[in-house]
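Troubleshooting log. The previous structure file for this entry was overwritten by mistake, so regenerating from the original sequence record. Sequence copied from the archived sheet and checked twice against the printout by T.R.
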Amino acid sequence: MEQLLHYVWKHKLWRHGPMTTTDGQQIEIIDPGLHNRDAGPDFFNAKIKIAGTLWVGNVEIHDQSSDWYLHGHDRDPRYNNVILHVCGSIDRSVRNEKGEPLAQLQLDVPEYVKAHYDELLTTDQYPPCYRIIPSLSQLSVHAWMNALQTERLEQKTEAIMERVKRCDGSWEAGYFVTLARNYGFGINGDAFEAWAYRVPLQAVAHHQDDLLQIEAIFLGQAGLLDPAAIAERHRAEAIADSYFQRLRKEYLYLQHKFSFEPIDFQRWKFLRLRPQNFPHIRIAQLANLFYQRRAGLSQLLDCHDVKAAGELLRSAVTPYWETHYTFGHAGEKQQKRLSAASLQLLLINTVIPILFAYGRHKSDEKLCQRAFDFLDQLKAENNHIVRMWQDCGLNVENAGDSQALIQLKKMYCDRKDCLRCRIGYEYLRPVTSQRRPTPASQREDVRAEDTRKRI
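Regenerated output below.
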């Protein structure tokens, strides 16, 4: 309920007309203030006229006025500048740390806001705001999609900055870790990231011209050259494999020389994984990329369009892996290149966030803009999230749109954070005949009819 009070206060959705404090003083809210999501009062620098006197200060909001004491604000000097205590119900008077009494206002949430908010939280259909979407202006949808796109890139930037920090400030290493993580394509993402931190890029660089040694280091650090990592039914055949023996011999020598420490091979997941996505294949592709000097940040920064970036990341495998998915049993020969869909995921989840993050780091707006341009140049992703929003009537033209809608679902819809969503804001606005939301009970019939029309 307190979140809803914040929302009503922030957007001035209270009933119009004379307002008074609990002790009968006339009150006029000129500016509700700036919403604070960190520690301290809920709204900063509000402007409120109480009994004809203009006050400038902070506002604190609670469900009940007694929550002031429950939260310890009466002992916190940060709350001494609170000029108004706004509550859903007033059950006692309050004083600040100085012992001064506070003016209090009981704020009633309008019934239509309560009803619409309850519907957003409890409706089984997904998303519950389905019927309002077609009535939204293209301008407001476009603005919200742009904001979500930027928000998603900023979120990914934070993760990249953490990786760079863990790599002692090396952006080259941070890029490699990010690239490796996304080579896991979700299922093995965590294992690939852990593996990438264990790959000593400076040591590998000494063997840049020897693909066998690069593969040996990469596969060895993944724990995949340990005989125990091989399934028991294939172990004898794999151990007898000459290529396995060469790689293992090379790795054991380099491990002793550089004191390498591999990750636990048990971190790798194979269950319900397509052979094309086996870690052996993905690591072999990364080794080949490194060998061809196409796994570095400097090479990526030289790509000025998305086609060039895609060509940079196209990678194949050595002849051995063209006939193998793991060590031992050989199959039909296949080149095992990245598919177009996999390449697009790498561009969206690695290349574009790295360009944006590095641009922010260097204060280079051209790099940040290049990231947005790449999103515009790529076609939209085709997954259940994107299809869901398309069914609701939202146009999805490129990868920028699909990334925005993924952000919308994961960070707002799944969390029921409708009060921070601009579509939720439209849903909670006063109802007009032009934009009256369809009741939940009728929405499934309307959805089915709309689907038939689109077909």
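The chain has 20 helices and seven strands. Archived copy saved in two places this time.
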